[in-house]
């Protein structure tokens, strides 16, 4: 059982992360019923800050039944939720606590049903992330992890480890994360290109010239709000960029990841990109390559139907360096994997929500081993190794 004082501390950090600026801000809070105590503490903390919370819960039974009940038709699953769209239009911030107690319940759901449901979420994402000009820059948002014994079993780890990663990782004092991210962030002052390499095949570069460097310390600062970076994940602990989306090339090796739709664990992912774009015919995996490819195609179809300004489903969207002191092992849970010290993650798809230029339903982070070497090329053409085999260079 998670101690009450830790739950309260996590709730405070989660609410602090959306930076309530004025009394009466409307905060929509949603998550799995297994995290009810946390959801309610978040609601109370919102009230204490002068905000107006609205809490909703879901369960694995409900989520699973939506897709398996034979009386629920595909037509119904594809029907837009206009009432929900109106709700999201009228909130100031959106807080999501991991909705599934057992991520494995999606593994055996027919892909066409997941695809149908995903289409109804496109208008929600446009509003949240400012995907269309009339909604820019979007809403403040936070997505936070939370542990359960069923999730630990799904990831094949002890529950205590998952609790340490999610609860202790979220409860890290803001001051500590600020010190860590500031230290790492300074190493990228004046950066033009970033080159990442490891012993398992990762070898790529991206351009960050003219792009915002974002210090993910768990607080949504006024400066971030001013440039349109309105959200983040908890646990926090990374320094990241929206790189130039049409530049960069090389190979990324990701030992472990989780499919964006089916939650299927995929191992040994090797991705190749050129001129910033993923080369899908060159992607390889140890298992279930078809699932990975289908998830990208699914998002591409939605992006085309959504009439995005330029199709960027396959373009590089993020480069991040993990640095949360409580997280030290990849388990397939991207939310924590991408915060591992000494690792780098690259995302493909949308990055408008982090001050980039791409709008897409896809945003999939692929995390390297925690033993990368990072070389930075600066504006004056000088180069410096800032991390060697996962260790920061003094």
Parts with pLDDT < 50 across at least 5 consecutive residues:
none
Q: Distance N terminus to C terminus?
A: 40 Å
* Helical/strand content category: alpha+beta
Structural Rg: 20 Å
Shape label: globular
Number of helices: 12
Fraction of helical residues = 25-40%
Which sequence of SSEs, written as H and E, runs from N to C?
HEHEHHHEHEHHHEEEHEEEEEHEHEEEEE
Describe this structure in words.
The protein has 394 residues and is of the alpha+beta class. Helices cover 32% and strands 26% of the residues. It has 2 domains: 4-171, Thermophilic metalloprotease-like; 175-392, no CATH class. Strand 1 (26-32), helix 2 (36-48) and strand 2 (52-58) form a beta-alpha-beta unit. The longest helix has 19 residues, at 111-129. It is globular, with a radius of gyration of 20 Å. The mean pLDDT is 96.
How does the SSE layout of this entry go?
Layout: H1 4-16, E1 26-32, H2 36-48, E2 52-58, H3 60-68, H4 74-78, H5 82-89, E3 93-97, H6 111-129, E4 140-144, H7 149-155, H8 159-171, H9 174-186, E5 191-197, E6 203-207, E7 214-216, H10 222-227, E8 231-234, E9 238-241, E10 249-258, E11 265-274, E12 277-278, H11 289-305, E13 316-322, H12 334-337, E14 344-349, E15 363-367, E16 373-378, E17 383-388, E18 391-392
Parallel strand pairs: 1-2, 1-3, 3-4, 4-8
Antiparallel strand pairs: 5-6, 5-16, 6-10, 7-9, 9-13, 10-11, 11-12, 13-14, 14-15, 16-17, 17-18
């Amino acid at each position: 059982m998670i101690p009450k004082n830790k739950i309260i501390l996590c709730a405070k950090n989660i609410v602090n992360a959306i930076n309530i600026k004025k009394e009466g801000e409307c905060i929509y809070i949603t998550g799995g019923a297994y995290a009810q105590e946390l959801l309610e503490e978040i609601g109370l903390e919102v009230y204490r800050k002068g905000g107006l919370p609205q809490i909703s819960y879901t369960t694995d039974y409900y989520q699973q039944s939506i897709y398996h009940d034979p009386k629920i038709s595909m037509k119904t699953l594809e029907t837009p939720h206009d009432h929900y769209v109106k709700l999201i239009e009228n909130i100031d911030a959106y807080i999501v606590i991991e909705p599934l107690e057992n991520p494995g319940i999606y593994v055996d759901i027919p892909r066409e049903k997941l695809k149908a449901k995903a289409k109804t979420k496109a208008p929600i994402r446009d509003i949240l992330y400012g995907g269309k000009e009339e909604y820019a820059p979007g809403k403040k948002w936070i997505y936070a992890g939370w542990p359960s014994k069923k999730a630990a079993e799904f990831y094949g780890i002890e529950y205590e480890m998952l609790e340490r990663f999610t609860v202790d990782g979220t409860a890290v004092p803001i001051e500590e994360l600020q010190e860590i991210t500031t230290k790492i962030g300074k190493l990228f002052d004046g950066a033009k290109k970033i080159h990442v390499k490891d012993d398992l095949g990762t070898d790529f570069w991206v351009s960050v010239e003219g792009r915002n460097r974002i210090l993910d310390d768990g607080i949504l600062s006024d400066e971030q709000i001013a440039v349109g970076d309105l959200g983040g994940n908890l646990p926090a602990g990374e320094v990241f960029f929206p790189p130039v989306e049409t530049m960069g090339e090389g190979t990324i090796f990701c030992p472990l990841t989780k499919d964006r739709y089916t939650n299927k664990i995929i191992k040994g992912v090797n991705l190749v990109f050129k001129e910033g774009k993923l080369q899908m015919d060159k992607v390889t995996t140890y298992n279930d390559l078809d699932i990975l490819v289908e998830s990208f195609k699914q998002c591409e179809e939605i992006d085309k139907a959504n009439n995005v300004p330029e199709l960027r489903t396959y373009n590089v969207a993020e480069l991040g360096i993990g640095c949360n002191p409580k997280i030290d092992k990849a388990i397939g849970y991207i939310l924590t994997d991408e915060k591992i010290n000494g690792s780098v993650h690259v995302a493909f798809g949308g990055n408008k929500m982090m001050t980039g230029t791409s709008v897409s339903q896809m945003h999939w982070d692929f995390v390297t081993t925690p033993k990368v070497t990072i070389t930075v090329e600066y504006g004056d053409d000088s180069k410096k190794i800032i991390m060697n085999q996962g260790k920061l260079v003094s």
